[in-house]
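Bit of a strange request maybe. I'm writing a small parser for structure token strings and I need a real example to test against, not something I typed by hand. Could someone generate the tokens for this chain?
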Amino acid sequence: MSIDLAPIRAQLGRIVTDEDEVTAAPLRGMVVTFDRDETPPARGEPIAPGWHLAYFAEPSRRASLGEDGLPVERGVLPRMPLPRRMYAGTSLTFHAPILVGDTLRRETEFSDVQMRSGSTGTLIIATQTRRIHTPRGLALTEDTISVFREAVPPGTKSGLPQTEPPPDGMTFSRIVQPDPVTLFRYSALTFNPHRIHYDRPYAMEVEGYPGLVVHGPFSQQCLLDLLRDSTDRPIRSFTMRARAPLFDVAPFTLMGRLVNDDAAELYAVGPSGGIAMQARATLG
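Reply from user aminoacidic:
Good idea to test on real output. This should exercise your parser:
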């Protein structure tokens, strides 16, 4: 497939700024959606790592959405010449706490775009860099990577990568059973209209998946929660790479271990035993 990236690269460096406020209701939603045995933070208390995704909803009118439910032009990302969008990974740096009641200012920059050929065809890999500020200064830097892929021919299945198992020696673990209600609630909390997460006929018949797709950020939050349940040290940074999708048709396993007292490695492992998500975190 021949794609000219020059018009897209010409938009690199584009920045959009928006604002929000850290209210309590989405945090209560996070607690129950992830079935957490904890009290939501009160005004003036810090939110948990990863819960910033409950804010800055994408205010896209219905007419601006594509067949997959996502905006055709989303935030700083221009319209892409490939139709299918998937989460590919993130890198989070926690500079300072975000407190309930804070006003937030977020700068989102279209920071990188690349084109590659993979086992499933041509891929466009786009990165957005977000910087979230509170009244006290910079609180969070987030690089989010999205992959755009070719359409699945009608009547065929989406190609799924085969990955290796995680290394031995993991010291903490947890099993997660995704289900349609939980995935829908997370979509609602993060205002994510991507149909692969809640519309089973679309996910299976149009995109060729075996079931509903577990959000990459959902897996990200599961790993962050596993880590904070396994150490009292604050999380300073967290980098996660998506290796293979997860689906609601089977449980997946979270596992991890501390490394050298100031770091951790974590994995989400699919039902076949291969790595779906792998992450590295540094601790304070």
